[in-house]
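Q: Got a minute? One more chain.
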Amino acid sequence: MDGEFREAGGDPACWLDQVCEECGRIREGGADGWCPECDGPPAGEAAGGAGGGRTGT
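A: Always. Here it is, folded:
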């Protein structure tokens, strides 16, 4: 590199709470939303609980 500085790219670590625990995709609605790709539950909610998936409207 001969003294050349290169800035590493990538997504900021502050987005980690928005990553779907089921498929790894970033939730566009934030950590509180359901995953648009795999319909995984919001961050922190257990998957496969009683009934599993979304319930009602």
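A: DSSP finds no helices and no strands in the chain.
Q: Perfect, thanks.
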